[in-house]
Specification:
By secondary structure, the chain is mostly beta strands. The chain has one domain. It has no helices and twelve strands. The strands form four sheets. The chain has a six-stranded antiparallel beta sheet with strand order 1-4-5-8-9-12, with no helix packed on it. A two-stranded antiparallel sheet has the order 2-3. It starts with a strand and ends with a strand.
Length: 128
């Protein structure tokens, strides 16, 4: 099991107000598990947290905090002596939560970014 995580704390006051799109806290936790019975298979998960943030410079509109769960898998397939095929699959936003991923802009020109819905991604790469 591999565990990797991080947290950041931000104080972003500008002229007495919080800066647009600057959450006080962001955190993530990633877990990777190499399956002992299948040494070429690894499972992973990721939790991402972003605290609330202001969407305007006057600090009148606030975007709520959000948490997202992603899960994935990786499988290695040997292809001859010196080639390796890596297959990956990932589901982001497993709970299909609605959230504002970020806010940004400058005074009178603010914007919001919608978080992506549940998304399945698959990929294959070959080393040679």
């Amino acid at each position: 099991m591999t565990v990797l995580g991080g947290v950041s704390f931000l104080d972003s006051k500008v002229d007495g107000n919080e800066a647009i799109g600057a959450p006080d806290t962001q955190a993530n936790l990633n877990l990777k598990y190499d399956v002992p019975a299948l040494p070429d298979l690894a499972l992973d998960s990721r939790v991402i947290y972003t605290s609330s943030q202001y969407a305007d410079s006057a600090n009148q509109q606030k975007v709520p905090s959000w948490t997202r769960l992603d899960i994935g898998a990786r499988y290695l397939v040997p292809m001859g002596e010196d080639r390796l095929l890596t297959l990956r699959a990932r589901v982001e936003n497993v709970a299909d939560s609605d959230y504002w991923a970020s806010a940004g802009g400058v005074a009178n020109y603010e914007y919001l970014t919608v978080g992506a819905p549940r998304t399945l991604m698959v990929s294959a790469t070959v080393d040679f």
